[in-house]
Design brief:
Two copies of one chain form a homodimer. The first copy, chain A, is mostly helical. Chain A contains six helices and two strands. Chain A has a domain at about 35-130: Orthogonal Bundle (Arc Repressor Mutant, subunit A). Chain A binds a DNA duplex through helix 4.
DNA sequence: AAATATGGTTACACTCAATAATGATTATTA
DNA sequence: TAATAATCATTATTGAGTGTAACCATATTT
């Protein structure tokens, strides 16, 4: 047994380590992601949006008229899963869903004035909480981090 | 007819962009994480482990005798959720679960020889696939990335 | 015109993770 | 010491989040 907890050394909290996992990029990535996701969730509490809904709303704001299936591609989720998100945003009158006149199978999604205002406010809150969560990094380091992450997202060099 | 790049129409579905979301660290973080998680999932396919189980097994290998509740803390999940993971690892005889003689409420988790061998093999596979996924980054950049991520994980500077 | 493909929707299943309740054991305290 | 509280592992239940399959309406292709 490698653990020797006698009365002299009662239960050190640090006697277990994840040093072996630190060699895995995905491990560090996930743990940092959890921190940022929680920060965003907290920031969005007031607006009643989830991170998922906020992202969808933001993409609709900056891409007026976008079709649901296109949006699903951008979010990397299935169309069927987007339906509920859109339903919620529409019920709250943050977006409108109108038929695309050129292709009546499609909907054209646009943010309402209310939706644009809420998105703007929520975005500011998320930005602020993200800044706090990443406050150990300078602005330059944060920019560097994002660029590194985007190069990973671009896939293998091959 | 849906894609007309010849500046005919101002708002075509094809030119949708997520540029507005790129200002959010959490957005880039999540997308990079998805890439790495998929890489790890693929690498672990052969071993029959999920990313979750692999992480648990790895931590048990490097912390022989660790208690389930301590492990749950390290994995940042509830004890109750760890039970199923441990059950699976024990059923496959990758770990053993023995009572801690000093505190009979606790279990002491240790990897079997078989578990250590599988972990070693799986770790190599994950490392290889992670390296491929991050191949657009040099070794120095990868190390830098990890250090930036860990500083985020450390929380706000305050 | 008929067959095929695409877009949105619904229903279902599965994974992941949190919560609450329970039984066993240990620690505290009256 | 006896009674009470706290801790550990477990089970059951629940709720997100996401994928798959089937369906209907509309477009496209043959």
């Amino acid at each position: 047994m490698t653990q020797n907890k006698t009365a002299d050394e009662p239960e050190l909290p640090g006697d277990a380590s994840d040093l072996g996992m630190r060699g895995f990029l995905g491990y560090s990535l996930k743990r940092a992601y959890i921190v940022l996701h929680q920060a965003a969730t907290g920031a969005l509490d007031e607006s009643g949006l989830k991170v998922r809904s906020f992202t969808a709303l933001s993409l609709i704001v900056s891409n007026p008229g976008v079709a649901p299936s296109r949006l699903a591609d951008m979010l990397r989720i299935e169309r069927s899963n987007l339906v509920l998100i859109i339903d919620e945003l529409e019920t709250r009158e943050l977006i409108s869903r109108t038929r695309d006149p050129h292709d009546r199978r499609r909907f054209a999604l646009s943010a309402t004035l209310r939706g644009r205002r809420l998105q703007e406010k929520a975005a500011a809150a998320v930005k602020a909480d993200e800044a706090r969560a990443a406050s150990r990094l300078s602005a330059e380091e944060q920019a560097l981090l994002v660029s590194l992450l985007e190069r990973i997202e671009d896939g293998p060099a091959d």
